[in-house]
Write a structure and sequence with these properties.
The protein is mainly beta and 418 residues long. Helix content is 5%, strand content 44%.
């Protein structure tokens, strides 16, 4: 808040009085952890504009002080009157992370005025269409809350949550609502908005919200892909899509239903597709869904995520053992969206696992039961080829026992959860 104004008060430490007014300003970063995934970098510098009316009189880079506060002093403010202060905290990548502003700051001749500019995250809040809403009209009005310090906004509407397929993305919007002239195709859509500050520097993207246009509601649950790329083995490089054939491993692809030790001297069946992969591989989503659970696992130093299917809320898709995650709880994912890299395995390869869980039935299911009809044959064929080529590579034709598999890569169709 503004401190007292005392005409003729000496500036601390120098014993002088500025014949014009002086404004000392401080802006402190709010407590807590800066939002993961959308930070655009760490807080780096803070610019402060001092003005009267619509005119900017001074601009200065504020210095960082102890306690995560930026501070600076502006001398020579004349004539006496009311001034404004605007503080923009930028990241090391040039994104505006926080904004703080004060208006009506009274500065008198020969006086020192002290004020704090409370910093707030520079990130719009969506209003409508609401998250997970179903719409009958193909041309919804997009609305968001006005943001202090914003001079304009940029809106993006896409068919996927990574915004690789953008329907439209108007920039320079001065209103907090927008209606597009063309209809949005039926099915799922995703939208987000960012603000630009007074210098037209972009801020943080808002949370991504999903909506569904009538006529494209999801049908039966299907998966499109297997989370990693299966491709034919190249003996010259030993690459097979995302896999790298290396000696010393029993298998790189763990089948659904594979019997393994349970750590207590007994046995259990693996309820997932498991992969050993190079650590630089990106794991992708296999189905549309919303992340409802995100857990960091201290023992394995990686993440586990659970997504509820948008097609069938009784189906949950699990993504276990991921590092460098690109998703968080509450996010929507579409098939092919990047999730993260494999978790740590042995220093050479990483691991990751994918499960399909039918919650009411209390069963894990073979992923191939749900392959999209358009890709089922080709993906099943690639799995079968991977298993045969791995057996050729290590010289053991009895690793996978394909003749006993009801589906390629699955020793059983389902596993009951006890």
């Amino acid at each position: 808040m503004c401190g007292p104004t005392e005409p003729g008060k000496a500036r601390p430490g120098d014993g002088t009085v500025d014949p014009a007014g002086t404004l000392d300003i401080r802006a402190c970063l709010p407590g807590g952890v800066f939002p993961r995934r959308s930070s655009g970098g760490e807080p780096d510098s803070a610019w402060c504009d001092i003005g009267r009316g619509d005119s900017v009189l001074f601009s200065r880079n504020l210095g960082l002080r102890p306690g995560r506060c930026y501070a600076g002093s502006f001398r020579g403010l004349s004539p006496a009157g009311d001034y404004t202060a605007s503080v923009f905290v930028r990241s090391d990548s040039g994104i505006t992370l926080y904004f703080g502003g004060r208006t009506g700051i009274r500065v008198d001749s020969g006086a020192v005025t002290t004020t704090d500019a409370a910093l707030e995250i520079f990130r719009p809040v969506p209003v409508s269409p609401a998250d997970a809403s179903h719409l009958n009209e193909p041309g919804p009005v997009f609305r968001w809350n006005p943001l202090r310090g914003a001079s304009a906004y940029r809106l993006e509407v896409a068919s996927d949550s990574n915004f690789n397929q953008v329907f439209f993305g108007p920039d320079g919007l001065t209103s907090t609502e927008y209606t597009h002239g063309s209809a949005i195709p039926p099915g799922n859509g995703y939208w987000r908005v960012l603000a630009r500050d007074a210098r037209v520097v972009p801020g943080l993207w808002s949370p991504t919200w999903r909506f569904t246009i009538a006529g494209g509601e999801p049908g039966a649950f299907t998966i499109r892909g297997l989370g990693v790329r299966f491709e034919p083995w190249d003996p010259a490089t030993n690459r097979a899509g995302d896999f790298l054939f290396l000696p010393g491993y029993a298998r790189l692809f763990w089948e659904f239903g594979l019997p393994v030790g349970d750590g207590t001297g007994g046995w259990k069946q693996l309820p997932d597709f498991g992969y050993l992969l190079p650590m630089d591989v990106w794991v992708t989503a296999v189905a549309a869904g919303r992340i409802v659970r995100a857990v960091y696992q201290e023992e394995t130093r990686d993440w586990e995520f659970t997504a509820v299917s948008t097609a069938d809320p009784d189906i949950q898709v699990g993504y276990d053992h991921l590092t460098e995650p690109r998703i968080g709880e509450g996010d929507f994912v579409a098939p092919g969206d990047t999730l993260g890299r494999p978790g740590i395995w042995d220093g050479t390869l990483g691991r990751t696992e994918i499960t399909i869980h039918d919650v009411p039935a209390g069963q894990f299911r073979c992923p191939l039961l749900y392959l999209d009809p358009g890709t089922a044959d080709s993906l099943a064929g690639l799995i079968d080829r991977h298993m045969r080529e791995w057996e050729t590579f290590i010289g053991d034709t009895a690793v996978y026992r394909q003749e006993d598999q009801p589906y390629p890569g699955c020793r059983v169709e389902s596993i009951v959860i006890y």
